């Protein structure tokens, strides 16, 4: 399956995600993206830095983070996942061995449903070496 098919079929087509992108694990290359969903280089680099931050209170936890020009408040941050909310919408970011999945969900979707969708794709990619 192509990277674009993962975005279109495994994420957006579920109805739990309305736009998504897949980057390499360093955040330096966009492998696939929903039309019109642009994550700035500085935004993805801040996400990459959050995965490496081992502070007791990570910078991303105290300051939040930006995706596609919107600021999100951090609700979960660990070495694999980063979840953010802005009102009733939010983002789920999952890091695998070689990729970073960035997915946005709309107000109409429960955060847990969106997180499960993205985490399951992350689990699958890890299981096949990505």
Largest sheet: 7 strands, antiparallel
The number of E-state strands comes to 7
Gyration radius (Cα, Å) is: 13 Å
Round the mean pLDDT to the nearest integer and report it: 95
Structural class: alpha+beta
Helix content: 25-40%
Order of helices and strands: HEEHHEEEEEH
User: Which regions contain 5 or more consecutive residues with pLDDT less than 50?
Assistant: none
Note the overall shape. globular
Strand content: 25-35%
Strand order of the largest sheet: 2-1-7-6-5-4-3
Spatial separation of the terminal alpha carbons: 13 Å
**How many helical stretches?**
4
Question: How would you characterize this protein structure?
Answer:
The chain has 130 residues and is α+β, with helices and mostly antiparallel strands. It contains four helices and seven strands. It has helices at 3-11, 41-52, 59-63, 111-127, and strands at 19-24, 30-33, 65-67, 70-77, 81-86, 89-95, 99-105. It has a seven-stranded antiparallel beta sheet, with helices on both faces. A hairpin with a 3-residue loop joins strand 6 and strand 7. The radius of gyration is 13 Å and the shape is globular. It starts with a helix and ends with a helix. The mean pLDDT is 95.
